[in-house]
Write a structure and sequence with these properties.
258 residues, 77% helix, mainly alpha, 9 helices
Amino acid sequence: SCCGRTAGSYSELAASEGNEEENEEVSSADAVGVGKSSRAFWSDRTARLVSLHLTLTELMEFANMGLQPLWASAPREVGGLGFGSNELGVLMSTAAIVIIFAQLFAYPRLDGRLGALQTMQLCTCLELPWWLLMPSIAGWSHGSTARLWGLAVLSRARSVFAELKFCALLLLINNAVRSDQRGAFNGFTTAVSGVGKVVGPALIAPLFAWSITDGEALGFPLNHWLAFLCCAGCTVGTLALGQRMPASLALPLDEPRE
């Protein structure tokens, strides 16, 4: 009887060890599978498209952040607006209000009607004309107050569409990969788009400086319009990238699709 209980104990112990080894093997296999899936977006076309779109968007936005004060404070004789620090302060103070309005009120309504992908494309199209309207303010014969509020209205109108586009793009980034890949993919897109944040201001400052010196003598489109036309070109580039994204990107990859 004692021997029987001992033999049974050894059998249970052996079975328990076998189950633990099997569970470890399954866990290892799962870990390997997750490792493979976390690298899958590197070769995925849709993931590359949204990453490049974000990079180009960040390049354009950070270039604009450097361009606006440079152009606004440049002398009127070279296509600038001749604003001082007070006017620049008023101009920049309206940015936060626009962002709050776009994120809390405008975007939920648009996304509910159109979806993230169509919202992004629509706002990209609506953003484009404002790049071409802003440099025309330099030719206004009105006083500095009219030019100030003209720039404030035009630049903030563009910012509304840019913010709506950015909100939609962030959702598309999450939809581009499975839920177990989102952490790695968001880190990847953040790192890649960081290149745009560095390159944008580094390129726009010398480009604008050249346009209001040597370029101003050459006339349109190489004068003060040049930097704005480059930003408009980046907007067209993001629109083209959006056109290549599949319609299924409007839904998370984990959800069943019809």
